[in-house]
Amino acid sequence: MDLIEQQEQQLLLSAKSTDTILLRHNPDKQFLSYLAKHGFELPNIQIVNNKTLPEDREHRQISLVPYLITEEVDLWTRNTPERSAIGAPYDLVKKLNNKFFTRQMAINHEFRTTVGYFCNDEQELREAYTSLRNAGFEKCVLKIPYGASGKGLKIITNEQEFLTVCKFITRRSHQFDLLLEGWHPTQQCINAQLWIDPTSVKLLAVTEQMIDQNGVYKGTHFTPKFSTSLMEQYRTEVLRLGSILQQKGYFGVCGVDSIVDTNGILYPIIEINARFTQVTYLLPVVAKLINTYSFIFSRYIRFETRSPQAFSNLYEKLHKRLSPDTRNGFMVYTFVRGTLPEQSKTRYRLFVLFYGSDEEKVHNMIKMFIDEHVGVDQL
Fold first, then answer.
1. Domain finish residue from 227, 253, 275
2. Among 101, 127, 273, 312, whose Cα sits 20 to 30 Å from the Cα of 335?
3. pLDDT over 70 (residue 336)
4. Inter-residue contact 240 to 203 (CB < 8 Å)
5. Where is the ATP-grasp domain (predicted)?
6. At 237, which helix (H) or strand (E)?
7. Per-residue confidence (pLDDT) for residue 2, from 0 to 100
8. Quick check: helix, strand or coil at residue 142?
9. Looking at the predicted structure, is the pLDDT value of residue 378 above 60?
């Protein structure tokens, strides 16, 4: 959990020197120095309690830009004129992050949706599975209302696996709220970043998401190629969605996950992330690189070491292994580390942005970076 919490470091990517960012963990000093050398304006850093937003005894005007509008943020700003938060009302944010609400909204507004069924008991679940198999789906995906990056969903590959899952669920409860969808083989997983305010809806970026066979996010392709017809269709649909959200009172950044299946059919709303995403924080960095480099990707790895490693040491090994040149390079944008005393090991997550003018070289660097058989001693 500490490693996931430390991904809050991504705030450093979009903050200015005059800003103050609230973190639960002190970033590594060597990593901060590394960012400064790469031209980032390091903001003021204030460490806060996990569950408590700071009080300001001077009663200054404070504008909070949270990753997500939560009930805590809502209470922090309520009835306090000098405090404000950039984002939509908490109740609306909670609804839009609910996969079931999002799907029903897409159906109500006649967006194309994947084949699926809401299920409340065992009979409905079994009937839904039978219908999907009869419709030709070899795989299905079972979803709960909330979850991200592969969490909150179960991919079912055959009937025996379905029966096992069904038995597991009904043993715990005879009434439930689940969504069973057919697994549409995908050609591309697309993400749109929208900015929505009372007077406008803007499409900030369209990227391609790297998703593994279990629905887990692996990274982003910031410079994908899409056909003109697909982009026109996609732009129309996500801006239409943005207008609907605007009418509901949504304000701020919104991420939309979409797919194009292997038949070239667009499904514009798979999930809505009514919050900042990793892509959101990287957009200012990508905006500076995209005028010079044709290929930009983000990826991350997890690894362990027997003894703690300094950031500078790991970076030196990584630089040596990846061998960047004058036309192709990489930048570490998040470095998180946690100790496991019971195992005498240190666990890490390393997030890297790759960029370059030579597609083959960039892909070779990525391959060397994500090779799961490479231990840290081989970096």
1. 275
2. 273
3. yes
4. no
5. 103-301
6. helix 228-247
7. 62
8. strand
9. no
Note whether residue 324 is domain-resident: yes
Domain that holds residue 161: 115-182
Kindly list the distances between the CA atom of residue 327 and the CA atoms of 289, 295, 350, in Å, as whole numbers in the listed order. 12, 11, 23
Residue of 220, 266, 274 lying closest to 242 (CA atoms): 274
| Distance (Å) of CA 61 to CA 44, 53, 85 | 17, 15, 11
Cα-Cα-Cα-Cα torsion 146, 152, 156, 157, nearest 10 degrees, comes to: 120
Give the lowest-confidence range in 70-79, 92-101, 146-155, 183-192: 146-155
b/e 191-212 (16+ beta carbons within 10 angstroms → b): bbbbebeeeebeeebbbbbbbe
User: What is the count of structural domains for the chain?
Assistant: 4
The secondary structure of 322-355, three-state, reads HCCECCEEEEEEEEEEEEEHHHCEEEEEEEEEEE
Residues 42 and 122 in one domain: no
Are the beta carbons of 124 and 178 closer than 8 angstroms?
A: no
Q: Residues 3-8: what's their mean pLDDT?
A: 74
Whose tokens are 């995403």? That residue is 277
Global pTM value: 0.90
